Amino acid sequence: MPNCLIHPFTYSPIHPLYYDPIKKTLGDVFNRTPWLRRLFYHLLDLLLLRTWHVHRELRRWAKGRTQEPLNILDAGSGYGQYTYWMSGLSDKWNILAVDVKEDQVADSNAFFRQIGRRNVQFAVQDLVLYQEPNSFDLALSVDVMEHILEDVEVFRNIHASLKDGGMLLISTPSDQGGSDVHDDGETSFIEEHVRDGYNIREIQQKLTTAGFERVEARYSYGEPGQISWRLSMKYPILMLGKSRLFFILLPFYYLLTFPFCLLLNWLDARTVHDSGTGLIVKAWK
User: Fold this and answer.
1) Does the keyword Transferase apply (predicted)?
2) CA 153, CA 160: separation in Å to the nearest integer?
3) What is the DSSP letter of 233?
């Protein structure tokens, strides 16, 4: 995402890892055919706990709206998996998915044309600068704000881009161990993060400052989710960071861990957490 800063190296039990090269390698593998890309999306939906939480909130928002011609902004679309999922809920919704990575935007546009979803468009945009006044009924920001230093500017731009009554849905790490940071002397093992996580009151205050009328926030990634994240994401990413040869071992690794991760994700998504390493935030204009 735009304007990412590089953390100076400080002592941490795990040397920070550049996540983007691994993501690009995965994208190169699964972009070979539309069938592989669909499979990749479904695997992400199952493995990534944040997806369970985001889909749950999107289903609530979508109830009674699938026949309405609505406009949706996917603010920081990444691989495009959330745009794919939302575009499958209703062909009456028009979805604009923006990201700063030109290759991902081009790949995503080609894929969505191949599968015939004409209600979707991907575009290269910097969220710090992008604004389309009074245009969207919903904006989605998943694992984006931890990459952007100028977060209040982004919140203001999204607020201006929403129609009256429109909602912004955010998933981002919290300061309760988000980005796998638990002590003051540690830094995130994901090098591209510019902040290790939001305090729940901090992000609510920033959204209010940006103009949102009502803000709700809750924790995700409680104890079940933290175990699932280590098994499904952290350990595989660390292995791939050491050598791409671990791609060969990944199917066998997930064969063992996948059932446990599914159970843990299910438990986390259905539990109210007093604390957690993630945040789910909703804000209305």
Assistant:
1) yes
2) 11
3) I
